Amino acid sequence: MLRDEVRKFAESVLAPLAPEIDKTGEFPMVNIKKMAKLGLLGVIVPEEYGGSGFDFQSLSIVIEEISRVCASTGVITAVNNSLVTYPILTFANEEQKKKYLPLLCSGEKIGAFGLTEPNAGSDVASLEATARLEGNHYILNGAKRFITNGTAAGIFVVFAYTNKELKHKGVSAFIVEKDTPGFTVGKHEELMGIRATGNCELIFEDAKIPTENLIGKEGDGFKVCMNTLDVSRVDIGAQGVGIAQAALEEAVKYSKERKAFGQPICEFEMIQSMLAEMACAVQAARLLVQYAAYCKDKGMPRFSRESAMAKYFPATIAVDVTRKAVQIFGGYGYSREYPVERFYRDAKILELYEGTSEIQKIVIARDLLK
Ligand code: CAA
Predict the structure, then answer these.
(1) For residues 237 and 286, what is the distance between their CA atoms, to the nearest angstrom?
(2) In ligand 1, which atom is closest to the CA atom of 230?
(3) DSSP letter string, 200-223
(4) Whole-angstrom Cα distance, residue 84 to residue 104?
């Protein structure tokens, strides 16, 4: 039922805007507000905090269906849900939950996750941002880069060192509001795909964060971050499934319409071979995503391997499936006249963000070898 409802909404409301915002790079705020009304911004948040009270499997279905029509809106939704409401719901205190979750679920404020820095991507422990305690504030200094939702967000979960000597045990997590003195949003990134995600830099120059905005205790940040990424990577996998599903559907349709050598190209076995490989890949990826979400729903204490698999494989196949879709479309696939070139551009980010494919393989292999 959820899949059907979200698909109907996505096809009627989100799909018409998708090619346009890919061109302009404009953050689709109007649609995000509509999604908030349907409860899609707080999918896993209990109703008492303004959310929909669904489970993680439901969330992955929501992200897949949205991404099937608009990958930008897919990741905007994923970030708000799993990178922002999830760590607040899981690690914040009652007061913080009551203050911030209703704002994030209602769309009054959009959420963003400030981890990546100009000099720290894969190696989280090498981040340079610092937060020093002064009276009842932390003084935050540093810069964050490639922050999805950054230009539109009102609430940021930000990571910084409160004690660099302790290495990863000295990282802390903060809730930062947009109007915090000393905090500014920097340049907007012109990206190859997912172009309407408000991706930008964040700059902290003696930004004053009230002590009550620390999530958990000082030094909890690395675990908050890793545990959150375990959850959010499943949604990035779901985004990959959605993009790949869209590419498969377009390729099937086009192969029946386009004629060459006197017959529709779908009659050629080389095309059929590609379609069959694409369909298997999409379904296998979907099942990995659903399985990882199921592990989370069942309360598996650590499901890093399942989550990394649910991110790595869908990312890989999404790039491959969208590339094949372009191939089936031939020259038209390379043209903006058809959506498959957008799917191909959008898919590439899946191998890079929320941990590159190489990082996912490290997580999987470390767990295998443990
Ligand atoms: N859950 C809980 N704890 C975890 C954990 C997890 N998943 N992973 C690691 N930890 C704990 C370890 O148990 C260890 O704890 P102890 O010190 O108590 O033993 C501690 O954290 C350090 O672990 P590691 O030694 O494994 O840490 P590492 O420095 O080797 O890093 C890594 C591990 C997997 C490479 C990690 O740095 C990583 O995931 N890097 C990728 C970063 C990433 O995904 N960035 C995404 C940015 S957000 C984004 O992209 C959003 C967007 O645009 C949409």
Answers:
(1) 8
(2) 7
(3) EEEEEEEEEEEGGGEESSTT-HHH
(4) 8
8 A C-beta contact, residue 140 and residue 130: yes
- Taking only Cα atoms into account, the Rg of the chain, rounded to an integer number of angstroms, comes to 21
Amino acid at 249: E
Phi, psi (deg, nearest 5) at residue 181: -60, 135
User: In angstroms, how far is the first alpha carbon of the chain from the final one?
Assistant: 40
Sequence-separated (6 or more) residues with CB below 8 Å from residue 236: 75, 78, 311, 314, 315, 350, 353, 354
Q: Give the start-end residues of each E strand in the chain.
A: 111-114, 130-134, 137-147, 155-161, 171-177, 183-188, 200-210, 214-215, 259-260, 263-264
For residue 10, the 8-state DSSP code is: I
Q: Do 153 and 202 contact (CB within 8 A), yes or no?
A: no
Read off the pLDDT of each residue in 261-270 and give the average, rounded to a whole number.
98
Q: Which residues line ligand 1 (CB under 6 A)?
A: 75, 79, 113, 115-116, 122-125, 146, 148, 168, 222-223, 226-227, 229-230, 302, 304, 353-355, 359, 362-363
How many Cα atoms occupy the beta-carbon half-sphere of 336 within 13 Å? 5
Which residue among 5, 20, 354, 358 is the active-site one? 354
In angstroms, rounded to a whole number, what is the distance separating the alpha carbons of residues 366 and 122?
16
Interval 140-179: pLDDT, tens: 999 999 999 999 999 999 999 999 999 999 999 999 999 9
* pLDDT-based confidence at residue 199 (cuts at 50, 70, 90): very high
